[in-house]
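Lecture 7 notes. Example A: sequence first, then its structure tokens.
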Amino acid sequence: MSGLVKSEGWFYDDLDNVKIGFKVDEVLFRGKSPLQDILVFQNAEFGRVLVIDGTIQLTEKDECAYHEMIAHLPLNSHPEPKRVLILGGGDGGVAREVVKNSTVETVDICEIDQMVLDVSRKYLPFTSCGLDHPKVTVHVQDGAEFIKAVQHKYDVIITDSSDFTEEPSPSTALFQLQYYQGVKEALAPDGIMCSQAMGMWTDEDHTRMIFQACASVFNSVEYAHTYVPSSLGGCNGFVLCTDTQIVKFR
């Protein structure tokens, strides 16, 4: 895990040449599930911070910038989204935003790690409220396997995974060509996929890889981004994908 530097009391999220630090006022949770390391700590400026496998996933202060964009971009691009699937999203923030759309009737969340759900419910009530909304059903399962077995079509599918890494991780399968092909099969004819696609300033190669893979599967692909101060490079990106001519993302 990218370190909680105990001698200094700081947590550092870093790449090879870039580092961002957060002063740790209090460690609220630190544990290891069968799949990954999970850390929650308190920071005076950003509030509660969720870290998975050494990478910051969200902070209380700026999570809205990410969750609103990844949810409302596809929802507001679709003419009438009723059935939504979230792959990942175990902190509940995307679901919290999705159910704000009045046309949405059902939301499935497929989160691979039960501990993420449990820790979020206990320490991150500002996002985990989305997990227990009456329209939401939570499935604890590998998203890549879930998408292969869906029995009905979704209007919107949102991939809210942790970042792509060269090392194998629970999210690795959610960045593969086979996964995007499976998502396409699970979408209704006018359906939309929105997937987190890294930040273009610090993850340009991975962003390009994701975009090109999606462009080989879908007829229409766009890249969007938003400013998230707690992310390396201050940016989070998204790919928006569809096969229908009805949707015009721009």
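Example B, a different protein, same format:
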Amino acid sequence: MAQGRGWEGAVLKLMRAKDYAFTVTEAEDVAPDYRRLRLSDGGMLAATGTHPTMWVRLWFENAGKPHQRAYTLVDPDPAAGTFGMEFALHEGCASDWARAAKPGDTIEATVQGTGFETPEPAPTRLFAVADPASLPALNSLLDALGTVPATVFFEGDPGELPLRADPARHEVRAIPRRDAGRHLVEQVKAALPELLRETSEPYLWIACDTATTRALASYARKELGLPKQRVNALGYWRAS
């Protein structure tokens, strides 16, 4: 696959993206339709370092053509050169690969575009909007912010998923996915104004499907007046 990644690969090369090869060392099914892999990093972490919500692009074959998808690193260990990845399984070439992955399997990856700036001043409360696809990034953020309390709007049922929420400081509001994400948008819009009035230094983090993420980010900035440095929004997938 390294020989031909189409226009996406060409663009990434022009942007000086770095390529690595990862090797699967462990695989386990954490919950129905949710799988965790552990991988060796091929020297990546020593070169790049780490930061909260860090992600890389994995390359899969899809009908004979290269296809890239971004995934968050889980518990990266630079000293050991390992990290985890978690996959919310559905239809598609990425999920097909994750379902079949076993120790010894390899996959190519590209690092380009990832980044995170710790909010300053530190938030007095985090407001996060997430779903199973962005769960690893949400967990990374909760870990990074330590004792900061949080309200999490989670689209779907966290159920058996490995959500690292501490009931002592994290409130999780599970919201079913309806109307292609519009129900989530309505619920967040109904709750957020009152919650913000009670928070001196809010920080809003949004990571759902692209349309939902854009709608909520626009609402937060234009209608609620949150400064752009207090809103971090990234679409994690596209609804078909």
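Note on Example B: Residues 182-197 form the longest helix (16 residues). The radius of gyration is 18 Å.
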